[in-house]
Each structure stands twice: as C-alpha cells, then as structure tokens.
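Thought: the user wants the 3D structure for the chain below. I'll pass the sequence to the structure tool as-is, report back what it returns, then summarize two notable features.
Action: structure_tool
Action Input:
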Amino acid sequence: MQKVIGLKTDSNPLSYSQTTAMLVIDAHGNPSQAEIARMLHLQPATVVTVIDELEKLNLVVRRTQANNRRTYQIQLTSSGENQAVEIKKQTKLVENFLKTQLTKQEYREFSSLIEKLSQGLEKNLSNASEVIKPEGGEK
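Observation:
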C-alpha cells in the first residue's frame, strides 16, 4: 500500500517520490543512491534530485563508503527517522479508513488489484525500452 498511496499532509509535506524514497531508505538501512534508483525504478539523476531535496530538509545525509568514495550511502537523520514514522502512521490510517469503507471482500480485491498493478509496473518499468501494451480489459 505504501508504494501506491502518496501521503501529503501537514505532517508530511513531501512529494510522492520523496515519500517513497524515505520509506526505501528506512526499510533498507543506508542504501546507495543507485540502489534507491533501482528499487524505485527511477533514473539515477532523478534520485540525485530527490536526495538533494531531502538533504535540504535535513531528513537524510549522504555518506561516502570507505571502499568507494564515488558511491554514497543515504542515511536518515533523526528528523528523517521521525518523518518515516509519521509516514507509516499516515499509511496505516489510510489502510484503516479503507477497511471501514469497504467490505472484507472488497478490501481483499482492492489489495489484490493494487498488488497486481504494482507488480506489473515493476515488470514493465524494469524494461523501459518496451512499450506497455494492454493484455486485457479496456484499450
């Protein structure tokens, strides 16, 4: 659910890209910029821009690796860790809201569809040279 829902609130003024980058950094403990780009299916230059923005907000810091000074590991600051906690709380609130609005069956179907879409995007975006073509449903 966190991959799909961008949570922009007063307590989380971050963009969708910033929010997902924060969650990836939190979940994977100091990944490199290249790893973040791979996990989010973004171009490395895009991730550099996102990390620059998060750095200006004092949510992350870049650390050079001892064995490779050209590669940066991205680490959450204490403010970044607090923001990641807030993002996860907001995500849980959205999930709970959905559960109150949908029957158990509808929620399972919704979750299944979101997962299917997410997997399809991952598959197709990892092979960016291919054009995404409808395999069924409406064209």
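Final Answer: Structure generated. The chain has one domain: 16-125. The beta strands are 60-65, 68-76.
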